[in-house]
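Lab notebook: predicted structure, single chain.

Context: the supervisor wants predicted structures on file for every construct in the current expression panel, including those that have not yet been purified. This is the next one on the list. No modifications to the sequence; it matches the entry in the shared construct table.
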Amino acid sequence: MIRSVVVRLVAYLLIVNGIAGVVAVWTGWSMTTALIDGLRQSSLLVSDQQARLVTSVRGVTVGVDDAAEATVGLSRSTTQVRNAVNDATQTATQLAATFDQLSQASRVTVFGVRPLEGLTAPFSANAADFRQLSVSLGLTADSLTGNAQEMARVSTDLKSIQGQVSSAAGDIEALQSASLLQQGIASLDIGSRLLLGMIFFEATLSALTGLALLMVIGHPHLHIPASLAIVRTRDDEQT
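Prediction complete. Output recorded below exactly as produced.
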């Protein structure tokens, strides 16, 4: 009697385990299908985002290159302006020297008289003005020289940045993220289906085993075949 109760309890547990396994497989299958579909949609979005990112990085590369070219042009222009200022500085220096000479020449004495004495002061004043202008222009030329050097350095830095950004764009474009995601999704899909198939097989086997046990011990609502009944009768006679 106790043996029959134990066997019946085990049979019920096996049936419940089988039903729970089938329900779990059905739930897992539905969730896995939804997850795989979501991952496939995400992989398509990743591919689109990757293309947009490459386009954006390429745009940054073009912008940096334009800035580098503009900086080079500005450096050249600044150098040309500096050269012009240097020329003006030399001219002002020469004019100052010329007015100094004219000032000296205006002091000439003819028969004890200085006919050009009235020009001495203006010539001296002009010489001083041009000498001051030469100093100012020299300072401006020095400043322009520093600016031209800074612009050239900035242009070199921008060219380096442009090369790095272009290399990064190439790396992003070469990254096969979409194909890798598709391969991973395919592997996940196959693996999950196989696992759920194994669980379904074990759950079905568990439920069938439980039903078989109930049929063997004689459940009131289950009818066992004659061959199994003969085997059961023999077992009872032996016990």
